[in-house]
Structure formats: C-alpha cells, structure tokens
## 1
Amino acid sequence: MNRMIIKNGFVVKDDAVIKGNIYIKDGMVLREAEDFDADEVIDAEGLYVFDGFVDMHVHLREPGFEYKEDILSGTKAAVKGGFTSVCCMPNTNPVCDNPSVITYIKEKAMAADNCRVYPIGAITKGQKGAEITEMFKLKRAGAVALSDDGLPVLNGNIMRLAMEYAKTADILLICHEEDKEIAADGVVNEGYNATIAGLRGISRVAEEAMIARDILLSSALDARVHIAHISTKGSVELIRQAKRLGVKVTCETCPHYFSANDSLILSFDTNTKVNPPLRTEADRLAIIDGIKDGTIDVVATDHAPHHTNDKFVEYNYAANGISGLETAFALANTYLVKSRAIDYPRLNRLMSVNPKKILGISGGEKERYADFTIVDTEKKYRIDAKKFVSKGKNTPFNGLEVQGSVEYTVVGGKIKYKNDNK
Ligand code: DOR
Ligand code: ZN
C-alpha cells in the first residue's frame, strides 16, 4: 500500500490551473479526496503540478551504442527532466526491428526503474528502407509506434505499403522527413549563415518535400501519420493546410527549433549540429505560431546523446544531435510561456496530454496513473552540461540563462527525482 498527497500546488489541467491537492493510492490518482494518512506528502506550495511529461522521441542508444547512452543513464536523465514516460527510437544496434529487441528494452527499463519506457519499432528491416517489418508482431511485443527515425523511408512505394499495414495493425507511424537527394551532403541550414560559415547547406525543401509526400499518401489511404521534429515555416504551413482538409496528420517539434536559430552555427560548435538543422529566425517564429494555433501537437526532445569523440571533430564530420532531456522544460518555459506565446495548460497538452492521446497510452480517465511533474516556474539559472546525468553532454545551450526547474518527478505514485539543489 502506498499513499501520497501532493499538497497545495497549482495543478495544471487541460484548460485551467487550479490550486489544490492530489491524492494517490497504489500508483493511481483518486478522483476524490480521501481522508487518509499519507506515507508521503509533497509540499507543492508555490509550485506547478503538470501531468507527467511524455517524450515521444528519444534515443536511448541501447543496445549497441552504450558509450553514448544506455537505458539506465537515459531514463535517469528523463526523470531529471521531468519526463515520466519516454518512447525510444529504434536506430540501435541491432536495430529494433524484431520482438526480441523490444523485449530486451522493456526488461532493461524495468530494471532501471526510473520512468515508463515505450519502445518504437522500425518501419523497415534494419532501417534499410527496402522491406517493411512484421508490424503485428512488433505491436504484440509492445511497440507503441513504428519509425525509421534517423533515416527517412525514401521509397514512396514502401511508405505507401507501410501506411496500409500500419492502418490495419492500428499502430502509429512516425516519419523522419528528409529527402536525402535534396539534402545532399549539407550539414547546416542552407542560407545566409551557411554561406558566412562556409558550410554546406541543406535546403528546407529536403524536409518539406517528404512531408508533402506523406501528407498526400496519408490522405489517399485515409491512414494516420505523425511527422517527427518539424523545423521549417513551410512544414508548419503544409501541416496546417492538411489538418484543415481533414488529413489524419499530427506532428511534433523540438525545443531547439523554438529556442534557437542557425546563427548559432557561426561558433562552429558541433553541438549546434542536428538533423534537421537549426533554421532561420523566421522559421523559429513560424514554429512558435504553429504551436500557438495548434498545428503542432507535441513538443518532443529528439534527445540524441553523443560521446565527445563523435562531436569533437570538424563540423562536417560531427554526429547530428542534441542531448535534450534535461533542458526541455526550462527551454519551453522560457521561450514559450515566459515569452507569452502560450500558457501552462497549453504546455501540459504539448508535453503530456497530446503525446498520450496520439500514442494511445493514456490509461483512461477512470484509472489514471499517478504520474506528475512538479516544477518551479520562476527559478532562474544557467544550463551546465557538466551536471547532466545523461552521458551525452552535447548541448548548444550550455551557459544559457533559463527560467524554470523540475523539482519532483513522480511516476506511479513514487518520487523518482527530487531536485536537491535549492
Ligand atoms: O540529430 C539527429 N540525431 N537527428 C536524427 O534524426 C537522429 C538523431 C540521432 O540518432 O543521433
Ligand atoms: Zn529524426
């Protein structure tokens, strides 16, 4: 028996913030207050209580790339960042394209005992883009979605087939949109800053052309599709139009696309290298508009931890990716809420309600998991990558002053993270 009360917090609901208490019994939220002796009381006076954040796009790197991250370090970083659930991408070694890798991840996550971990299986075998995986088997083993993330499904006919099968299997497809031919050998966003830096550019059309293709396929087949990490103004516009036309498309963006632009590459810091690349200020503002009007459903981190050996090389050779779990809330709070673009209920939808809905992992209204993220929305501090518990210290935001800290992360009625740095 485990009873907890979260007391006097500003509880963030779907469309309001209400001061009150939350009563938890055996890992579930009680609908009404019960008069009980709690084993544990969290004093949330002055703090905001969100539904546990759900990150539908992380790279935990295990199996195969444990020198970058593993399930234990990655889930520790997740709870430190306020995430009570994460979905991990299949670009591991071996690729998560069969039930045994799914089972392996689930067992490791269970042993780590930090947050809930939902594996994402591959769309194609070995992520080679040639032959679709056995989707029903992957779903039965516990995959919550399918993606070839890290790589696009370049062949349109394979994507068409994948959408048809995924529709029948009722499993979500998450698309990494990048026309490799158009992207060619670019390493940063094509434009003014790329020219100044003398680095090869990636056209925005590389992303937008693939999004357009998948919107058309989704529309033709009446199949659901979720677009990963959108970064351009054109992508927002394509998805806005598609939603208006009733296409079953949802999408996510990442904190770095609304917090930074490609002027950061002028430092030649390889921690600014990410795929898709940081875009222009006009793109950044368009992403925020897309968040404001609901075109963008989800904020996901695309947590992509890398070893310094993969980053401490010339820009052209550096690995793509940003370690994002431990900075996501602060960046969202600073660049979306404190800048007055959105309010806390909207942030709760972007970081918890919507990803759960899209993935179908909500648990239902009656039996709600007691997953909560309790934050101090006012605290100001500088991001310090050295303090990351993730093995990946690769962030372009090191030293940046931000506002908002995660104070407690509660998973299934248990405190999995408490901020002791008062
Ligand atoms: O920057 C990225 N890093 N983008 C991706 O799509 C993959 C990811 C990774 O796995 O490192
Ligand atoms: Zn990706």
Note: The mean pLDDT is 96.
## 2
Amino acid sequence: MKKIVIAIDGYSSCGKSTLAKQLAKELGYVYIDTGAMYRAVAYYADSCGYFDSNSLAVTELIKDLPKILISFRYNSSLEKSETILNGQNIEQHIRSIKISNYVSKIAQIKEVRLKLIELQRAMGKEKGIVMDGRDIGSVVFPDAELKLFMTASPEIRAQRRYDELVAKGEKVTFEEVFSNIILRDNDDTTRSENPLIKASDAVVIDNSELTQVEQFEITLKMALSKINEK
Ligand code: DC
C-alpha cells in the first residue's frame, strides 16, 4: 500500500499530538512530535544555565548545536515514544510550564530551526509518518500528501492544557496556562523564522466543538482517501 506523509500544524494545545498518535497507530505509521524537539533544545539550554531572567545566551547555544543529539525511543510498556537528549530520557521534564515558557525563544533561532528541520526531513524520508508542529506542511514537508491545520478557541485549549498539567501534579493556575497560550500563539504567528501559517492546501480542523472520536474519524477518512489515490 502507498505510504504518505501526514503533516499536522496548528496552535498550541489544540490536540495535534493526540490526533497524530491516533492516526499513526491506526495506519501503522511513525509519529514524530517536533514540538518535543524544540522543547529538548530548551531543556538543554536551561540545564546549561543559558536562560537568565528570561534572556537567552543565543551565541553559546548556537555553538553547542553540534553537541545536541535528539532522538525518540519507543516505550512499549507506556505505548509511546519518549524524547532522548544526548542519551538521557528527558520526556518527564520537557512539558513543564517552565520549559513551555522558554521554548518560544528557542523556536525563534534560525540555526536551531535549520538543524531540527534537517533532522525532521531525514526522519520522514521513507514516508509512513505523521508529524506535528507549526511548519510541517509549510516548510518541512511542503509536498506532504495530507496537511491538516488544527485550531480551537484559546479558552478551550487553556482548559485542556490546565487539566493535563493538574493531572500530572503541576501547581499552576488556569490564568497562568491561559496567558502562556496567548503568549505562544503570538510568538508562533509573529516570529520571523517560519511562523505558524496555514499552507494553502491544508484542511482546517476546528475542534472546539468536536470530540476526539469525531475528529479522528473525519481525518482518518481523508488519510485513507489520499493513500488509496492513484
Ligand atoms: O507543540 P509544542 O507546544 O510542544 O511546541 C513547543 C514549541 O515549539 C512551541 O512554542 C512552538 C515551537 N514549535 C515550532 O516552532 N515548530 C515546530 N515544528 C514545532 C514546535
């Protein structure tokens, strides 16, 4: 059967990774979370002390880029891929509010983007992947057979992220999470390097009023029709 690339872009916390994982599982494809790669670089910069009262030592970080090795390892007991930075499993550390606040600064650095895009293209060379992020359909895989652009209202996205963080035991308020979402929307859409834009051939999925099952069924149909296209 023909293998395709499924590119999922959109705003933060609108369920891109949930949908990407469901599609990948159903189709037997590999799921690649590119946000985790930017988060891994933010974690690296933080552990080197490169963030100082929210300003970042960009020159030092760029110098270190060849030393930053990012990969994913499948954890079969948890049935999910985990992010590995220089041999260390950092999955538990990269979703915190602290890293979420730092990561926008990392995503603005051209040299970081070039390195991660090269890695992402290599990961998708054989197709049969579902990749989510902000620039997958527009920059990383402009020829992807199926491009989805996901969105939902900021309030709904903040509530979903807040529930997730609280379930993990993080001490956050709804207001903190909401302002982080607004800040990241602004950073994602206004940065000069590969801002979040809808590719002209992407299909918009607004899931404010959709259940996870509904959005999965709609997009699976789209994927199967692309796979079966002559
Ligand atoms: O999807 P996420 O929230 O885990 O992404 C983390 C950050 O990385 C977010 O600020 C946007 C940025 N990002 C990006 O600029 N390009 C991508 N392809 C993926 C994520």
Note: Residues 12, 34-35, 38-39, 103-104, 107, 133-136, 184, 188 surround 2'-deoxycytidine-5'-monophosphate (CB under 6 Å).
